[in-house]
Design goal:
The complex is a heterodimer of chains A (386) and B (169).
Chain A lengths: L3 H14 L1 H7 L1 H13 L8 E7 L4 H12 L3 E7 L2 H9 L5 E5 L3 H7 L4 E6 L4 H29 L5 H8 L3 E7 L6 H33 L1 H8 L1 H27 L10 H26 L2 H12 L2 H4 L11 H9 L1 H15 L7 H9 L2 H22 L1
Parallel strand pairs in A: 1-2, 1-3
Antiparallel strand pairs in A: 3-4
Chain B lengths: L2 H14 L1 H17 L12 E7 L4 H12 L3 E6 L3 H9 L5 E5 L3 H6 L5 E7 L3 H29 L4 H6 L3 E2 L1
Parallel strand pairs in B: 1-2, 1-3
Antiparallel strand pairs in B: 3-4
Classes of the chains: A alpha/beta (386), B alpha/beta (169).
């Protein structure tokens, strides 16, 4: 009979021997996290190519194109002589939008005939489409206001400021809270990494039990040690995952990284609860199914779509109740809420009591796994005494 | 053993293994139902916004009603101060703040073009974009109606107004 310290040592040896478990615990998550961070490293989308078809070719149309070009999100250095050529480029994906400037733009504007500039953007790429659309709209309304100010001044309004006020009666100042420069990397990477991490935590918990099952038969171990086996596994897996979690949090929100306004203690508390909940779910899957393939396919089914349910890309408040209930079962969705609250809002403990409580409730599978092991141990002890 | 027999055997072996069947057939069915589930509503609508109305005039109230009327934004209430509105956002009761400056009505009438400040939670891009879209749309419409009524007052044909700038479509 091994004591607890020896059992923990045995778990470490198990990891050292099992190359796959080692990979899934150590370098595979690290590699994938770096890959994702690298993909989104540009952070802010700028200079998206936009094609221009200028049928007017006047000074005014050139000025309008300069206004579009001045928007940081788009760059209009591709000119086309015809709509066909431009739409071909739009279809094959080399440009994201086509702006068509009509003939007689200059003369129609002076006559007050309101010429129509058409812009077509590829909204198949929703985020890119939104960016291009708002860049064109912004450039266009600035240009329009300028035209109207000149018009008003030509009609005898003396002061530029007054003319500008007449052209734009109500102005808007828009502030993106908590992500001031609308950084895509901060928005996506800080959510994708926990979602991937959740898959690894649950899967490695299953793999750890599989490794024991392969080595020295799980049932025998459980009947002998009972829940103690799970405690040993939990302490080892928890240590590794807590280090991984702290590492990616430091990389993202540490010195020189994105803004961190809240308390590290609260954030780490949330993370640790998530680790325990995820490991518990992995344990329960294997103890119930007792088959590596089946347990891992359930892990995949449960954790892989988590990113969509997290409510970062699509607001959770607009999900149907079924999606909301599935979301509530995923530890990572509560964790991400805590992460955003802490890093962005810097809220106090009270504000995130809800997700913390939900995470604690999701530790129930861990208790269930412990109960299963405990029951099996007492049963085999009874059988032995008979 | 013929090739056909091999294929039949392979199928039999496949169907006999429940975990493989679950992954290959059950997995596809579950995923195709589960994955689109969060996006079933397709568009985010009626994002909750809290208003700080420092003017409390007929025009500012009209603007608030217009913002509330857009499908994108739902005005959940009024806050007395900026601090109260901020607390509502931190509590996740609201996703955005619309602040109307004092003397808003007076500034519009005297042609000083007051600034409405809109703040949205950019930790969630889609929420931010939706609040922006709704608030921009409503204030654009208010601006246009202010312009038209002012031009009518000054004796210009309102027709002229809608004709003097370039359109974008």
């Amino acid at each position: 009979m091994l004591n607890f310290r020896e059992m923990v040592a045995r778990e470490w040896q198990l990891i050292a021997k099992d190359k796959w478990l080692q990979a899934a615990l150590l370098w595979l998550p690290g590699f994938l996290f770096l890959l994702v961070a690298w993909i989104f490293s540009a952070g802010i989308a700028t200079g998206l190519p936009v094609g221009v078809v200028d049928h007017d070719g006047s000074t005014l149309s050139n000025k309008l194109i300069h206004f579009y070009d001045a928007a940081p999100a788009i760059s209009t250095n591709t000119r086309f002589s015809s709509e066909e050529a431009a739409f071909d480029a739009l279809r094959n994906g080399s440009i994201y939008a086509v702006i068509v400037i009509p003939e007689n733009l200059l003369s129609d504007t002076y006559k007050g005939l309101s010429p129509r500039v058409s812009a077509f953007y590829n909204s198949q790429y929703i985020l890119v489409g939104k960016l291009v659309h708002s860049a064109i709209l912004g450039a266009h309304s600035t240009f329009n206001a300028g035209v109207e100010v000149k018009n008003l001044m030509a009609h005898g309004k003396p002061v530029t400021l007054q003319a500008a006020a007449l052209a734009v009666p109500v102005r808007i100042q828009m502030t993106p809270l908590f992500n001031l420069n609308l950084n895509y990397a901060q928005f996506l990477v800080s959510a994708i990494i926990p979602a991937m991490w959740q898959i690894f935590i649950v899967a490695t918990a299953v793999m750890s039990l599989v490794a024991t099952d392969r080595e020295g038969r799980l049932t025998e171990n459980v009947s002998f040690y009972g829940p103690k086996l799970l405690y040993a596994k939990l302490s080892v897996l928890f240590c590794i995952q807590a280090l991984t979690g702290a590492a990616f949090l430091t990389a993202m929100f540490g010195k020189g990284g994105w803004a961190m306004n809240g308390s590290w203690i609260t954030l780490l508390t949330g993370q640790w609860l998530m680790i325990i909940a995820c490991i518990g779910i992995g344990f329960l899957f294997y103890l119930v199914f007792k088959d590596a393939t089946r347990a891992l396919s359930f892990v995949a089914g449960f954790t892989a779509p988590a990113f969509a349910f997290m409510g970062v890309t699509f607001p959770a408040s607009d999900m149907l109740w079924l999606a909301k209930s599935w979301r509530a079962l995923l530890p990572v969705s509560h964790y991400v809420e805590i992460q955003i609250s802490e890093t962005a809002y810097g809220t106090s403990f009270l504000h995130i009591a809800g997700p913390l409580l939900a995470l604690s409730a999701l530790c129930l599978p861990m208790l269930a796994s412990i109960y299963i092991c405990h029951k099996q141990q007492t049963r085999s002890a009874e059988e032995a005494s008979i | 053993m013929t090739f056909l027999q091999l294929i039949i055997d392979e199928f039999r072996a496949f169907l006999k293994n429940p975990s493989v069947v679950f992954v290959v057939i059950g997995g596809v069915v579950i995923y195709s139902l589960l994955y689109p589930l969060p996006y079933a509503e397709e568009l985010p609508r009626e994002q909750k916004v809290i208003v700080v109305d420092n003017d409390n005039s007929t025009l500012s109230r009209e603007l608030i009603r217009m913002i509330d009327a857009t499908p994108q934004v739902d005005v959940i209430g009024h806050a007395i101060s900026h601090r109260e509105a901020k607390d509502a956002v931190l509590d996740r009761d609201a996703e955005g703040i619309i602040e109307i400056p004092g003397k808003f009505y007076r500034d519009v009438v005297t042609g000083k073009s007051p600034v409405i400040s809109i703040a949205g939670d950019a930790s969630y891009f889609l929420v931010y974009g939706t609040v922006l879209e709704g608030a921009m749309g409503a204030s654009g419409t208010l601006g246009a109606s202010v312009k038209v009524s002012r031009d009518v007052l000054q004796g210009e044909l309102s027709q002229w107004q809608s004709n003097n700038t370039m359109q974008y479509g």
